[in-house]
Amino acid sequence: MPTTTTMPYDVADLELADSGERLITWAGREMPVLRLIRERFAAERPLEGLRLSACLHVTSETANLVITLKAGGADVRLCASNPLSTQDTVAAALTARHGIPTFAVKGEDNARYFSHVNAVLDHRPQLTMDDGADLVAELHKTRSELLSTVMAGTEETTTGVVRLRAMARDGALKFPIVAVNEAMTKKMFDNRYGTGQSTIDGIVRATNVLLAGKTFVVCGYGWCGRGLASRAAGLGAHVVVTEVDPVRALEAVMDGYRVAPLRDIAPHADFVTTLTGDINVIDREHLELFKDGVIIANSGHFNDEINLTALRTMASEITKPRPSVEAYHLRGGRTINVLAEGRLVNLAAAEGHPAAVMDMSFANQALCAEYVAKNHATLKPAVYDVPEDIDKTIAALKLRSMGADIDILTDEQRAYLASWETGTN
Ligand code: ADE
Question: For the whole prediction, is pTM greater than 0.85?
Answer without folding.
Answer: yes
